[in-house]
Specification:
Layout: H1 19-22, H2 24-29, H3 58-64, H4 69-73, H5 76-90, E1 95-96, H6 103-108, E2 112-115, E3 119-122, H7 129-133, H8 144-157, E4 162-167, H9 169-178, H10 186-194, H11 196-220, E5 224-228, H12 237-253, E6 268-271, H13 279-283, E7 289-291, H14 298-305, E8 311-315, H15 324-338, E9 344-348, H16 358-371
Parallel strand pairs: 1-4, 4-5, 5-6, 6-7, 7-8, 8-9
Antiparallel strand pairs: 2-3
Helix pairs in contact: 5-8, 8-11, 9-10, 9-11, 10-11, 11-12, 15-16
This protein binds coproporphyrinogen III.
Residues 50-55, 64, 69, 96, 98-101, 114, 116-117, 119-120, 165, 171, 181, 228, 230, 351 line the site of coproporphyrinogen III.
């Protein structure tokens, strides 16, 4: 398995066309709180939501009717339309590409489904050295439907940046070892100690497919990428450092420095839940921006990471059904806590819960934009 060196993005890529200087989101990701463009006018405070494209939107549920989750992701027209829905409705400052962390598995030929209300389920779990050795190779040509969906999306988005993503090796491998979602991820954590060689081979395979997935999205026109290590919070520091961090760094190496020939590289974001105790380690994997879950105050995150690290987060999704004044006070507190960091992009501290009233999300965006830079 080889990691490919970073290359330049195509000349007609949104970043090559000067999207950065127009985008409050990309400026915050780069740690510059005000525009570096000639106008240098104050910008609105950027916000987007993890899982903004999905079940909280009636227009999403309607469009998805009769098509399975992964088939929807691989239908360029559908994936593009679903990506655009929350941008139109909420006026968020970025689109997140509608796809899933297990899409590279499906494209490599691994049998996987997303079971409604359950999550990713594999035909056969990957538990032995022979299972790992039998994993298929992923050919970059398989990303054709992803590339087409992204090209369609960026053509519609204009100046709104598109964020690509992938699952981090631990989170992806956790689904592969367990074969389905699990609470404590004992399978992959046990493999690290019982059979470290097999663990390393599996995590390296996962890093390769996730790295390629992120790279394909950036090459096709995404302006930033986020690595989701949703379940890294189940790991102690030593396990994270020894058995996981090198593989996350390998995934990032596929996209590190990837940018236009004459411009700054696409910003990279790293997010996990329950990662307060490993936040400093997370940062060393190669991202520019750290996504913080709802458990840690952003002032404390800045203390742990230093003021130079731009942050993303961390409105607690548990506040979304609360009375508006309660939610508003919480958001104002998050905005204030984020002000010590070099950059701050508002987001939730985890994904939008499916039962969320979409009108509340629109109101949250309006409030954040009204607060100003
Ligand atoms: C762990 C993980 C997965 N997928 C993802 C993660 C990391 C983020 C996180 O921690 O939430 C990432 C993901 N999945 C999806 C997106 C699309 C973009 C967006 O954030 O709006 C993104 C970024 C769509 C999706 N991925 C999924 C849905 C729901 C599918 C449906 O409509 O039924 C969506 C919109 C399915 C999915 N896929 C996965 C799970 C756990 C589930 C939920 C299962 C369920 O409760 O039904 C795996």
């Amino acid at each position: 398995m080889t990691t490919s060196p970073a290359t330049h993005l195509p000349p007609d890529h949104p970043l090559s066309r000067g999207l950065t200087s127009e985008s409050a989101l990309l400026n915050q990701y780069r740690g510059s709180r005000t525009s570096t463009g000639a106008a240098a006018k104050p910008e609105r405070r950027p916000v987007w939501f993890m899982r903004q494209a999905g079940r909280s939107l009636p227009e999403y549920r309607k469009l998805r009717e009769g098509t399975s989750m992964l088939d929807s992701c691989l239908n360029p027209e559908l994936a593009s339309e679903i990506t655009l829905q929350p941008v139109r409705r909420h006026d968020v400052d970025a689109a997140i590409f509608f796809s899933d962390i297990v899409i590279p598995l499906r494209l490599a030929g691994v049998g996987v489904e997303i079971k409604p209300g359950v999550g990713p389920v594999l035909d056969a779990p990957v538990r032995t050295a022979a299972d790992v050795a039998a994993l298929p190779e992923l050919d970059d040509a398989a990303f054709a439907p992803i590339t087409e969906a992204i090209e369609r999306t960026t053509a519609e988005l204009g100046r709104v940046p598109l964020i690509g993503f992938a699952g981090a090796p631990f989170t992806l491998a956790a689904y592969m070892v367990e074969g389905r979602p699990s609470r404590d991820h004992l399978g992959p954590r046990a493999m690290m100690h019982a059979d470290p060689q097999t663990w390393n081979a599996l995590a390296a395979w996962a890093a390769d497919v996730s790295g390629r997935f992120m790279r394909a999205q950036l090459m096709a026109g995404a302006s930033a990428a986020q690595l989701f290590d949703s379940w890294a919070g189940s790991l102690g520091r030593a396990d994270y450092q020894q058995h996981v961090l090198p593989h996350s760094a390998a995934a990032f190496s596929y996209v590190s420095g990837l940018g236009p020939a004459d411009g700054a590289p696409a910003p990279l974001v790293h997010f996990g839940t329950g990662t307060s105790e490993i936040l400093d380690l997370l940062k060393t994997a190669g991202a520019d921006v750290i996504g913080v879950d709802y458990r840690l105050d952003l002032t404390e995150a800045t203390r742990r990471l230093g003021p130079q690290t731009p942050l993303q987060g961390n409105i607690d999704p548990a506040y979304l059904p609360a009375e508006w004044p309660v939610l508003e006070a919480h958001i104002r507190q998050v905005v204030a806590a984020g002000s010590a960091a070099a950059g701050h992009v508002l987001n939730l501290g985890h994904g939008v819960p499916p039962e969320t009233d979409p009108e509340v999300l629109t109101r949250v965006v309006e409030l954040i934009h009204s607060i100003g830079p």
